[in-house]
Amino acid sequence: MLDGPDRPLYEIKANLFKALAHPARIRVLEILSTSEGPTPVSEILAATDLEPTLLSQHLSVLKRHHVVSGHRTGNAVYYTIAHPKIAELLLIARMFLADTLAAQRDRLDAVESLPPIGTPR
User: Under the GO molecular function aspect, what terms does this record hold (predicted)?
Assistant: First the structure.
């Protein structure tokens, strides 16, 4: 399957998910997806409490994989989500997580409703 002509597509897709595979990068994308326009790095720093060098590394990964785009105006650097479907992907991921957690909660409720077990002798 991965040796055919679609291999580069699978690799690109896998690299996209690798770029998304860090909580800080997900948070950055959520911040950008709710922004009205380009967001300065200073606002991202304030919202994430990341060290500037660490945020820079995360933004670099996202930029390298074409998930965000950035531009400099004077001394400030501004970022935006590179494609509007990224925000939709984040929303779908959140809905999947909520559904998964709800199903687990239902299972936990079922376990808690079982009759008590006697203590071993």
Answer: DNA binding; DNA-binding transcription factor activity
Q: CA torsion sign, 89 to 94 to 99 to 103?
A: positive
Per-residue confidence band for 60, with pLDDT thresholds at 50, 70 and 90 = very high
So what's the pLDDT on residue 74? 94
What is 8-24 written as a DSSP string?
HHHHHHHHHHHHH-SHH
Give the C-alpha separation, 95 to 73, whole Å. Answer: 36
Q: How many domains does the structure of the chain reveal?
A: 1
Residue 27 lies in a domain: yes
Identify the CATH number of the domain in which residue 78 sits. Answer: 1.10.10.10
Answer whether residue 118 is part of any domain. Answer: no
pLDDT at position 7, please?
76
Task: Quote the tokens at residue 49.
Answer: 């409490």
Res. 120: pLDDT tops 70: no
